[in-house]
Design a protein that fits this description.
The chain has about 110 residues and is an alpha/beta fold. It contains four helices and five strands; from the N terminus they run βαβαβαββα.
Length: about 110
């Protein structure tokens, strides 16, 4: 599995209209907690379904996209943060130490 860099708003439209669930990992490149959460997620992402799209958002570089996500999906901004998007809505979110590939895989299975 590999990250798809989220760097434009058109990608969010694609995520919202997709018939498959997608993940957005919001990451602060200046935060050690965010780095640890990302590393732990990457170590365990074999637990995720192979066909799921996993987007990576650099919050520092693309703050306007992060702000748009918070508003559009009606979620409180966190960093790090993992969002599961299905049918145009955020159906699951986790932040900081709650981010887990295994827990996310369980959520994907029920959406």
């Amino acid at each position: 599995m590999k990250w798809t860099i989220l760097d434009n708003l058109q990608q969010l439209d694609d995520i919202k209209t997709s018939d498959q669930p997608s993940l957005i990992f919001k990451h602060s490149t200046r935060c050690s907690i965010s780095m640890m959460a990302k590393k732990r997620f990457e170590l365990d992402w074999h637990a995720l379904p192979e066909n799921i799209s996993v987007y990576f958002l650099d919050l520092i570089r693309y703050r306007e996209i992060s702000n748009y996500i918070a508003e559009d999906f009606d979620v409180h901004h966190e960093s790090p943060q993992l969002l599961l998007i299905k049918d145009g809505e955020c159906v699951y979110e986790a932040s900081h130490g709650e981010i887990s590939a295994e827990d996310t895989a369980e959520q994907i299975a029920v959406v």
